[in-house]
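Hey, quick one: can you model this chain's 3D structure?
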Amino acid sequence: MTNEEYIKKAKMIWQTYVPKSGQADYVQGELLRAIEKLRDEAHRNGNANFNEKCHGILIQYLRNKLTDRRVFDENTIVLINLDLDKLGMKDEPYLYDDVFDSVAHRIVDWCIAYDEPIPHKTNPELYC
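Sure thing. Here's the predicted structure for all 128 residues.
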């Protein structure tokens, strides 16, 4: 897919599955919500408000879903984990879009592989 196609698909997923506030009802929406919350915190606040009950949980959620061997090969999973490691560094906020966009593209790939909406179980430990 081209970058424009990824952006178009991500926008459709966002409009369909991401609520105005709170956790998404479906995994597809929660994945996009997670990466965009991480992007916002890094870019807007330099990770000043980064905490384990929010951003740490979001990183782990992304890692749990995006290391799916049904969807991605081993090399892609290694790259996803490296990207998430960069985004999970509280004291070293990642301030460029490339890694956030790369993870967002993998989310789109995951959503394409799981074509049907998958219910997301709300995490009561997540405070953001």
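One thing worth noting: The mean pLDDT is 96.
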